[in-house]
Specification:
single chain, 9 helices, binds adenosine monophosphate
Length: about 210
């Protein structure tokens, strides 16, 4: 089973996606995580991507499309869950073409949405574990011990692009470039729209139902 999760920043794609991928045994390909790892490792793609990410802009299509193709090609035997890719219509077209070339397709595209006030609150309070990438929230799901990951004991940090000025930019980029994906996918088989403004477990239950049909 191959899935695409898309929606605005802060809607919960990462959190819900990793739970779903665990339960269904899928490879969780989170474009933002892949890019941050490339930046940390100082790869050529990471060097190209960094300035765009710091400003909350999209990294050029050619860079992300090549990275995701490497990831997908390396995981052909398993299903995958794409989170944060595609993020505009040209990327969606490139994905369709790439999958056709590997005799693969997308079974479900899930659009997760929530009001902007909700997204702002979620993003500005978000804390991430440097070691395992698990996410917390200062108020809604705080760690048991301040600054420390409940799962692995790693250090928690706030992402550079979760600062309020960059959040505003990312939401603008989402509205301009990513939201048009709705028209691209809405009439395709396997499309579902999900209200992701509720509590974590109920959103997960709805997501699971959308995938199980
Ligand atoms: P995320 O972790 O999904 O919020 O992504 C963090 C940042 O990585 C974004 O603000 C973009 O700069 C970059 N990024 C992630 N996915 C993509 C993509 N599909 N296309 C272009 N840039 C991306």
């Amino acid at each position: 089973m191959n899935l695409v999760l898309f929606g605005p920043p802060g809607v919960g794609k990462g959190t819900q996606g990793s739970r779903l991928a665990d339960e269904f045994g899928l490879s969780h390909l989170a474009m933002g995580d892949i890019l941050r790892a490339a930046v940390r490792n100082g790869t050529e793609a990471g060097l190209k991507a960094k300035a765009f990410m710091d400003e909350g802009k999209l990294v050029p299509d050619a860079v992300v499309v090549a990275m995701i193709e490497d990831e997908i090609a390396g995981k052909e035997s398993n299903g995958f869950l794409l989170d944060g890719f595609p993020r505009n219509v040209p990327q969606a077209e490139a994905l369709d073409q790439m999958l056709a070339g590997h005799n693969m397709g997308i079974d479900h595209v899930i659009f997760m949405d929530a009001p902007e006030s909700n997204l702002l609150e979620r993003l500005s309070g978000r804390l991430i574990c440097r070691a395992c990438g698990f996410g917390f929230h200062r108020h809604y799901s705080p760690p048991r011990e301040a600054g420390k990951c409940d799962r692995c004991g790693g250090e928690l940090y706030q992402r550079e692009d979760d600062r309020e000025d960059v959040i505003a930019k990312r939401l603008h980029v989402y509205r301009e470039q990513t939201a048009p994906l709705l028209d691209y996918y809405k009439d395709k088989p396997g499309f579902a729209k999900l209200d992701a403004s509720g509590e974590m477990d109920s959103v997960y239950a709805a997501l699971k139902q959308a995938v199980e049909g």
